[in-house]
Amino acid sequence: MEQEFHYAPFRVEAGKIREFALALGLKDAVYFDRQAAIAAGFRDIPAPPTYTTVIDFWNERDFYQLFANWGLNPNDILHGEQSFEYQKDIINGDVITATAVLIDHFDKKNKRFYLIETTYRNQHNEVVRIGRATLIERREQHGTLAGH
Amino acid sequence: MAHLPDINKQALAPIDLVRYAGASGDFNEIHTVPEVARSKGLGEPIAHGMLLMGWAADAVGQWFPDKRLTKFTVRFVGMAHAGEAFVIEGALITEGAGELQIKDSSGSGKLVGSFEVE
Q: What is the dihedral of CA B103, B107, B113, B114, to 10 degrees?
């Protein structure tokens, strides 16, 4: 089986990077100061390693629409695993397009597992990141939640 | 195997989850609305897994300021709540590859992961 979801093109902006870095308590000046970023060898301010979440959720076609398209209730979903392959930097001013593919899903112990692979490309059509997520859907049984 | 310096994280305040929700765009109610978290059997709102992963990636950056993260995989092994302090522990397994974990002060695991830098 294969289901695809296409996020809308997303412009990476320094102000949003700054807000995200502050929320994570990041101190590295490269996320706040263009000169520091350039001095560190970046073209401009880079996005932190987990910034793709912002691309997924602050998108015109966002992760909630993915949930809805695939018939999932976000309040019943837990994030089980996440991995990233970092191929190129994501930099202030980049326009990122992303496609999520439902690779597999299976049931185990009253929970349903979804494996989603998302490929992020920049405005030059270069792959910048590949994200792989395992989402766990907690299923109601006999009026109580299975698992936790 | 070489142990890396522990990184201590102060306890999150409830508003830190709201701040991360706003910054990331993940406003999922199990992270932001106590009534929903309770109704789902989670106790209080749980910290976003990606907040912990963001900390963990930052830890790798602090351990290896002159290297670039190339691969990073984590498993969210326990739910994290506001009010708990955390420690990030890491070890270098081979040249360029290591493992890390985030635990609360009682030693209960929240995140385990592996990373590669070059």
A: 120
Taking residue A146's Cβ as centre, other Cβ atoms within 10 Å add up to 13
Instruction: Report the C-alpha gap between A80 and A105 in whole angstroms.
Output: 13
- B73 chain-A contacts, CB cut-off 8 A: 81-84
Q: Which of A57, A86, A145 sits opposite B25 (nearest CB)?
A: A57
Residue of B nearest to A15 (CA): B23
B22 and A CB contact within 8 Å: yes
Indicate the helix (H) or strand (E) that contains B16.
Answer: helix B14-24
A24–B54 C-beta distance less than 8 A? yes
Q: A102: closest CA among A112, A113, A114?
A: A114
CA atoms A68, A73, A74, A77: torsion sign? negative
User: If pLDDT is split at 50, 70 and 90, which confidence band does A99 have?
Assistant: very high
In chain B, which residues have their Cβ closer than 8 Å to the Cβ of A22? 19, 23
Alpha carbon distance, N-terminus to C-terminus of chain A = 29
Report pLDDT for B32. Answer: 93
Q: Residue B94: which residues within 8 A CB-CB, separation 6 or more?
A: none
The answer to whether B71 contacts A86, with C-beta atoms less than 8 Å apart, is: yes
Cα–chain center distance at B3:
18
Q: For residues A100-120, give the mean pLDDT.
A: 95
Q: What is the pTM of this model?
A: 0.94
